[in-house]
Amino acid sequence: MNEQQGMTLIVKTITRIILWMIFLYGIYIILHGHLTPGGGFGGGVIIALGFLSIMLAYGRSGVDEWLNIKFLHDLETSSVLLFLIVGILGIALGGAFLANFINHGSLFHLLSAGTIPVLNILIGIKVALSLFLVVIVLAHMHIGEGGQS
What we know:
Blueprint: H1 9-31, H2 40-66, H3 69-94, H4 116-140, E1 141-142, E2 147-148
Antiparallel strand pairs: 1-2
């Protein structure tokens, strides 16, 4: 990895350590969104901030070494398709778009909300990757030249 790009070695080291805690907290917010305040959008924003911390610490070129942007774009696009599939399964199995067709389980347990946790996960993926990919596109644009690099 090119040590000249990004911030100091201390910031890079702290980013490597704390990044997984940021991701874990975002996943926790997404998975517990039906039980506590939070959900797909809030957890997705937290995960996007984890990706953003990589870009801030390592620079624009460092992101290309850390992450596969094409894979993230494909995952972001497929999350919408999976959301629509869950909605269509709601029509087929429950009678309405996004109808809850999964067993509700026990009250106040992690698996107690049917399709809501599945939708929270898909929304979390969409929000996290959409926000991060917008930031990546803006970071690669050169304002003075009026186009992309």
